[in-house]
Sequence to fold (611 residues):
Amino acid sequence: MTSQRNILGVSAFYHDSAAAILSRGEIVAAAQEERFSRKKHDPRFPKHAISYCMEEAFIEAEDLALVAFYDNTPLTIDRIIRNSTTVSPQGEECFSNALKSALGGKLHLRESLKNVLGQDRPLWFVDHHISHSASAFFPSPFEEAAVVTADGVGEHATLSIGYGSGNTLDLISEINYPHSLGLLYSAFTFYCGFKVNSGEYKLMGLAPYGKPIYADLIERHLIDIKEDGSFALNMAYFDFPLGQSMISEKFCDLFGGPARERESVISRREMDLAASVQAVTEKIMLLITNHARKLTGSKNLCMAGGVALNCVATGKIWNFGDFDQIWVQPAAGDAGGALGAALYADHVGLGSKRTVQARGSQNASYLGRRYSPGSIQAVLDREKVVYAQADNVEARNRLIAKALADGLIVGHFSGRMEFGPRALGARSIIGDPRSVEMQSKMNLSIKFRESFRPFAPIIKYDRVSDYFDFQHESPYMLVVAPVNEARRTDFELNLNEDNMDMIKIVNHPRSDIPAVTHVDFSARLQTVHPEDNPELYGLLNEFENLTGVPVLVNTSFNVRGEPIVESPADALRCFFRTEMDLLILENFLIFKDKQAARDTDMSWKGEFELD
Fold:
C-alpha cells in the first residue's frame, strides 16, 4: 500500500491520549489509550492505541506518509513562560511543574514514536484548536460550516471560531488563556467536590436539582460577558495560573465557605452552584455560536473541545440558535485531537480532496476493535464460563429483548468499540426504560456511582419525536432534549428543600419512560439509524415488538473509576463484579444465574441450551 495517504494522528501528555489513522482519506481506526491500559483518562503516550490502529489499517511504519501531533509544543511553552512571568514570583512551582510536563513526554515524542513504529517518520505539529476544529469539520456531513471550539486551554486559545469549506479550514477569532470557559466550569467542578477533567459530567447532571441563584453573582464578580459572547475572567477569584488550586480564597468567600469534600453529602449549595454555572455556560455558548453564525454566514455549525460535550448547552443551541444543522465531534475532548490532527494534515497539509458523506465520514464513531467469535470463545473456555450461543443476530436480539422486557440488566458487547467518551451500544449496559427503579439500581448496584446521575435513552431515529421534543437525529448522545409533555407524569421537584432524599426522587416516576427521564423532564438522546448500527436498530425493533416501546436505557459498560471495557476479558470482569444479569459477547450469551453450574474440569466447555 502506498504511503501517500496513510496518516497517523496522536494526542498525548495532558489527558485522554489517543491515536487515529487515515488511509486514502478514510478514517480507518481511532481509540483512546485508556481502553487498553485500563487507566481512566490515561495521558501517557498511546503506544497501545497506535499499535491497534496500525493493525486495523494493515500497514507497517514504512507505509505512513507522516505522523500528526495534536499540539504545538513551542507555543505551549511560550504560554507557560508568559503565565509564569505574569504571576511571578508566586508561580515558580507552577512554572517548574508545567515546564516538566510540556518538555517531558513531548520532548521525547520522536523517540516514543520510533519505539512503537520501529523507525522515524515525518512528524507534523498541528495547533491544538486547529486539531479540535478539524476533528469537528472534516468528518461532518457539511460542505461548509462555522466551527466553534471551546475547552480549558490549548497553546494559548481557550475558545475559537473558525470556518471550514471543502478541504480548507481557518480560525478567524479566538479568546486566549487565562480567560477560559472550560476552566470556569472546572473551577465549579472542583468547588463542588468533583474531580477536574472528569467530574464535569457530574456537575451537569446535578444542575437540574438546583436553582441558578448564583448566576448573577458569577456574572457580576467572576466573568464579564459581552454581547458577542466574548468574556474575561476576574483572575482575583482563580488560582489555576499559580498551579496550586483552581480557586482562590476570594472565590470561597464569595460563595460562603470552603469547597465540598469529595464523597461528602451533596448540599443545597452544590446543587444551586451547579445550576448557576450551567446557566452561565449555556448563555455564553449560545451567544458565541450566534456570533459565529454572523461572522461566517453559515447555517451549519460544527463543535469540538471539552465544552462541546456539555450536551445541555448543545440542546439550547439547537432550540434557540440560528442554525439549520449541528454536528458535534463525538470525541470532542483531547482524544479527538488525534483524529483532527491527522485530518488537517491530510486535507490542508497534503491538499487531499475531501469527500462529503450524507451521514458524515466517521463510521458512526465505531472505530475500535471488533473481536472474532473464536477469540471470544477462547476466553470463555479458559475462564470456564457457562454460555450459550445464538444462531444469528436476529435470534440473539429476540433473546435480549425478552430478557430486557423481563427486567434483566444486560451488558452489551457487540461490534467495533466506540471512539469517544460515550458508549453508543457497542460497549453498553442496557435496560428497560419503563422501570421506575432502574436508574437507582444501575447507579448503585452496577455503576457504583452517585444515585442522582441520569441515564440516556437510545431510540429508533424515526420515532424520536414520538417521545421527545426534538425533530433531528442525535447519533452520538450529545444533545439533551425534553420528554414530550404528554408522556410526563405528575412530578414536581422541590428546589427549596435543603436535604433531598435523592433515592426517593430518582425512584419517583416522571414519565412513562422513567429510567431515562431526568428530574427536569430532560433526556440525553442517542438516536439509532440502521445505516449506522443495524444490529442495535434491530434490537430496538425486537423490544418494541414485545413492549410497544422503541426505547432502551443505555449507559457505558464500566464501573465508576474505570474506563469503558475494551476486550471480552474486560467485559467478563465487569459483569461478575456487578449485578448485571446477562452478558452479550457478540453471539455468546452468559446468564449469571447459570454460573452456579460451572464444572471444575478444565476441559469442560461450559455450554448450555437456550430456552
Notes: The domain at 373-597 is CATH 3.90.870.20 (DHBP synthase). Confidence is low (pLDDT under 50) at residues 599-606. The chain has three domains: 6-132+329-362, 181-327, 373-597.
